[in-house]
Design a protein that fits this description.
rod-shaped; mainly alpha
Length: about 100
C-alpha cells in the first residue's frame, strides 16, 4: 500500500500558486481573452495571490517565533520586525 505524500495533505504550495498567478497575469496581459475569460483569469489569479499572501504571513509568523526562541532580537531587546529587514546598505529595498 502506497503512502500518501505530505504535499497532498497540505494543499497547494507557494510555488505552485505563484506559477498559477504568473500564468493568469500573462494571459491577461496578452489581451486576446474575451471579457468573460479575462474575468475568470482575474478571479483565479486573485485567489492564487491571496493564497500566496496567506502562506507568506504564516511563514513570517513562524520565523518570528523561531527568532524569539533563539533569542534573536531587534534594537532595545524588541523582537526582530520585518521593517528591520532591508534597512542596510545591501538590503533588498536598495535595488
Amino acid at each position: 500500500m502506497a503512502k500518501k505524500t505530505a504535499k497532498k495533505d497540505k494543499g497547494p504550495d507557494f510555488e505552485g500558486e505563484l506559477e498559477k498567478l504568473e500564468e493568469a497575469v500573462a494571459k491577461l496581459e496578452d489581451g486576446s481573452l474575451t471579457l468573460d475569460e479575462a474575468i475568470s483569469q482575474f478571479e483565479g489569479g486573485f485567489k492564487s495571490w491571496r493564497h500566496c499572501q496567506d502562506l507568506l504571513e504564516k511563514a513570517r509568523k513562524k520565523i518570528e517565533v523561531l527568532c524569539e526562541e533563539a533569542g534573536i532580537a531587534g534594537e532595545d531587546g524588541a523582537s526582530l520586525s520585518w521593517e528591520d529587514v532591508g534597512s542596510g546598505e545591501d538590503g533588498p529595498d536598495d535595488e
